[in-house]
Amino acid sequence: MLHENEINSIKQNIEEEISSCKDMKGLILVKSKFIGKEGILNAYLKKYLKNSELSNENKKSIGFEINQLKDFFNLFYRKKISAFQNKQIPTDQIDYSIPVSSAIGNLHPLSLSKEYIHKIMQEMGFIYEDGPSIEKEYYNFDALNISKNHPARNEKDTFFINDDVLRTHTTAVQIRALESQKYVDEFRIYSIGDVYRRDDDSTHLPMFHQIEGFIIDNSASISTLKGFLLDFLKKFFEKDDVEIRLRPGYFPFTEPSVEVDVKFENGKWLEILGAGMIRKNILSKYGYKKGFAFGIGLERITMIKFGITNIHDLTDNHYPWLKQYGNSTEN
Fold first, then answer.
1. Residue 105 lies in a domain
2. Domain count of the chain?
3. Which stretch of 44-48, 112-116, 169-173 has the lowest confidence by average pLDDT?
4. Which keywords are on file for this protein (predicted)?
5. Which residues contact 180 (CB under 8 A, 6 or more apart)?
6. Alpha-carbon distance 230 to 221, whole Å?
7. Do 55 and 165 reside in the same domain of the chain?
8. CATH number, domain at 129?
């Protein structure tokens, strides 16, 4: 168990750092510092879990205490957000002579990307399928060869709701579509939806969006997969000189699996998606022979397309930023 002095010291640091925040960006940095994936509390947890001298009971107790500290942080975090939202502008600082803006708002970059992807996918012969955000473990894990002891099924990585989960990927839609038996022979399915993971730091969000797509075709191969992805990315980024590379990867539901990087003008490469040939044991269960699948983070390709550098800007309710990166609904 953690020493009481240690717990009190962490609580005091949390209170002091949250109280000193002047804006939401500062608050997000504090959140990353304390409860992010590489934050202070997770560092404590890793440190004690690796201690072979501690019994399993002691490790459970420490895990419980760390979770209580996270709850303590979130309580003050939410209070600070409320304080920001309820902050009143002093009457003597309001200029009533300023004309009222007639702007009716802009479409968010993520909304623009979604619309564009729907258009591209439908032009490429895909049919849209949707699935629930609160998913059964069977569709999210079991049917995709994700074993019971896989790290993704740990409460540190996934949000559980009783016997269900907040889906960690839209690949669950693939299983629902195959299981439905609505489609025969060769077909193309895609989905765009919200997904959830316990990953909240300077480069990750706990809720983000994923584009899932798969093609069932007896002539499918890694070569046709690469050709399709290159075609899709050229259409999305509206460039003919897009360059990609495929690196060996691992996903329980595809084999072979690849991770796909795109090349920037400065010569650097950035991973933007995962893909591969759908495993035979998944396809044969529903009477299909061959196909490939891919998953793309909507936020990542949107940031590349619009030149956005901070992922947290996508969730801030900041009108000047939206005016810069969004698109007027009047257009």
1. no
2. 2
3. 44-48
4. Aminoacyl-tRNA synthetase, ATP-binding, Cytoplasm, Ligase, Magnesium, Metal-binding, Nucleotide-binding, Protein biosynthesis
5. none
6. 14
7. no
8. 3.30.930.10
Last residue of a domain, one of 91, 106, 134: 91
Which structural domain range is residue 307 located in?
Answer: 114-328
Q: Is residue 99 part of a domain?
A: no
pLDDT in tens, 43-70: 878 887 788 887 888 878 888 888 888 8
Beta strand ranges found along 60-128 (DSSP E)? 106-107, 127-128
The answer to whether 274 and 293 are in contact (CB under 8 A) is no
pTM: 0.68
| 176 Cβ neighbours under 8 A, 6+ residues apart | 129, 131, 139
Identity (one letter) of the amino acid at 15?
E
CA dihedral 101, 103, 108, 113 (to 10 degrees): -150
Q: Which residue has the tokens 């439908």?
A: 122
**Rounded CA separation 73/21 (Å):** 14
| Angstrom distances, CA of residue 290 to CA of 269, 280, 294 | 30, 7, 14
160 lies in the same domain as 295: yes
290: left (phi over 0), alpha (psi -120 to 50) or beta: beta
